Amino acid sequence: MAATSSTLLLFFFLLQTLTLGSGTVAVYKKTYIFRINHLMKPSIFPTHEHWYTSPSFGVSTLHIYSTVFHGFSASLTAERAAALGNHPAVLAVFQDRLRYVHTTRSPQFLGLRNKQGLWSDSDYGAEVIVGILDTGVWPERRSFSDRNIGPVPSRWRGTCETGENFPGSICNRKLVGARFFSRGHDASADAAGGIGGINETVEFRSPRDADGHGTHTASTAAGRHVFGASLSGYASGIAKGVAPKARVAVYKVCWKGSGCLDSDILAGFDSAVADGVDVISISIGGGDGISAPYYLDPIAVGAFGAVSKGVFVASSAGNDGPTAMSVTNLAPWLTTVGAGTIDRTFPADIVLGDGRRLSGVSLYSGPAIDGQMYPLVYPGKSGGLPASLCMENSLDPKLVKGTIVVCDRGSSPRVAKGLVVKNAGGVGMILANGISNGEGLVGDAHVLPACAVGSDEGDSVKSYITANANPTATLAFRGTIIGVKPAPVVASFSGRGPNGLTPEVLKPDLIAPGVNILAAWTDAVGPTGLDSDHRKTEFNILSGTSMACPHVSGAAALLKSAHPSWSPAAIRSAMMTSSNLVDNTLQPVTDEGTGEPVTPLDIGAGHLNLYKAMDPGLVYDMGYADYVTFLCALEYEPKMIQIITHSPVTCPAKRPQPENLNYPSIMVVFEGAASVNQSKTVVRTVTNVEAAGSGVYKAKVSMVSGKGLAVSVKPGKLVFSPAVNKQSFAVTVTVTAVTAAGDPGSAPAADYGYLTWSDGTHEVRSPIVVSRIQPL
């Protein structure tokens, strides 16, 4: 481990050393996070903070971590960081890494009803505190009103930090706390190759939200009932979060235009747990497509510290789907959430000059152009890639002035393309998906009349342009439609499995509403998020796994309120084993991009269904020791594991199997083309959480795909009593016929099915995925 750290730091040092024209060498600073073995603190120091800031380490610290993580961050040269990495108390050194946010009616779509079921049984989550790690909050929104909410729970230890345009008195019984973390960004402003720090012209140096993302996710998780909500008339009705009475604590760790740094995120985790939150929602992930080992991933390390203290952590699965292995936030103690649609859409039509009507979506709310035909142009026909993508300064005003412009999706924000068209004199835009996006659509509050269409409709428009000397079109906007079928479908952008870091753990865990979600918004920027968009709106409609994650955070708040003794793993299990596999037509859930049925690699255990999660029957519970055993199974060295766990560990002499982690889903991995009669057995333990304490559950296995496989469960019956509330069982997968594995390095071939334990009332279902990986 030490040699590896030294090699990495030497590499960073070489990257940061610049030979100038005069022959001199300038060495620049970067921010590093130091994981310290806190058990080595000399007794002479009264606190760890005194130790970290003493001459023993000899650095000026940015953040001190002491709850979910022990250590500090500091701005240093790579040479100094490498030297400090040799300190006997330093377990690991991470270079600060940039992350990004993964950018109403949905509670009803999840099965929640006023004065019934989980909302009623949990008192709408009134005594639970949800911590939101994001871009801050716009506290004046009605979603954060504390009207008719009782006193702040006495266990709350947090504060409302004063800052720019954010008085400490602005928090209330609903928004119980707010903090901001900027030292990582401030240090980066002084570093060559850094992200430039915080843009003071658009940001608030306080918990106030200049971006909108944090306000949206916070109100999705726990916003109050707000009557008369809409985005310029779209999605009008009563807006509400999943846990409307839960308390909200905001931790601003991301900054408009400059993302989120690990050093600040860790500080947010540390403060949230110390303050006393029950749930953490983090719609943040890596922006480089790389999944670091768990001991090198500060989000995974921070989340482990939170979960080990009983705090449920929900994270977003990322928006790089439908590519295989695109799912992010892979640690098994995180609940990783993908995105699906709800039964509401915002249709807009393209009417071509030949009379054809093509369907799309839009949230445009300005002056309409219904019925007026305009020339239709596709800049990519002659202008190449930048013009086809409507990149900045790529459009010729002589070509597009007074026309409706067809722009291809990709490379720049969808709404930014519309601004480019508008600035070049265009009167409207058709935003066409490429093959990778398929037919998956999201609505945007465009700055000009604009409509998004799928790949097939986009090809039809382009073909019409090619075939006609004077092509024309108009756009028609049809408002809000409710009762759309089928729904849910898995959003084309939603991050997909398999788990590229630990194939034995299925990710994502489940999906939740994440397409066209109405929630509160900031006054600092218009609904497009563009600096030039000066419209003000109380609510906005966004799409992304960022929007799906807080649905699960709010759900966890409700379940925690109804079942205070449940662990984070039990809460996740209840959601996963009771999830839906069918849409509102009672057919298998499909993929938005292809229309084909999805697999557990796309949807995890299924779509969140809170009507059933309240009473799951059985749960797959886990705790600290289970996760330690899992880390031992990965053959991490003890020092690597201690980076995650805080405490020294001793792994068993016989290596455990990672697939035996007591997860609510089952992954069985064969390397290469397995031979006939080869088998693997995984073990699980279920806990009966029925109030009566007694019950008899029988197993049923149904394989959706899996020729050449046999699956057995022993025992096939589990008997529970008040004296025996835990039972274990084994699932054995046997190869009965050889099938080929995927190409080396590719996403593995996979078959799947489901194991269901039933007592006649409860259906406790787990996906079984059998994967064949071709070794590199």
From TrEMBL:
Record-annotated Subtilisin-like protease fibronectin type-III domain positions: 660-770
Gene3D superfamilies tied to this protein: 2.60.40.2310, 3.50.30.30, Peptidase S8 propeptide/proteinase inhibitor I9, Peptidase S8/S53 domain
Keyword Protease: yes
Domain PA: 374-460
Keyword terms, alphabetized: Hydrolase, Protease, Serine protease, Signal
Domain (Inhibitor I9) ranges: 32-102
Annotated signal sequence range: 1-23
Domain of life: Eukaryota
Ranges of residues in domain Peptidase S8/S53: 125-584
Active site: D134 (charge relay system), H213 (charge relay system), S546 (charge relay system)
GO biological process, any: proteolysis
Protease listed as a keyword: yes
InterPro entries: PA_domain, Peptidase_S8/S53_dom, Peptidase_S8/S53_dom_sf, Peptidase_S8_Ser-AS, Peptidase_S8_subtilisin-rel, Peptidases_S8_3, S8pro/Inhibitor_I9, S8pro/Inhibitor_I9_sf
GO molecular function: serine-type endopeptidase activity
Family per similarity comment: Belongs to the peptidase S8 family.
PANTHER family: PROPROTEIN CONVERTASE SUBTILISIN/KEXIN (PTHR10795)
Name by which UniProt lists this protein: Subtilisin-like protease
Annotated source species: Dendrobium catenatum
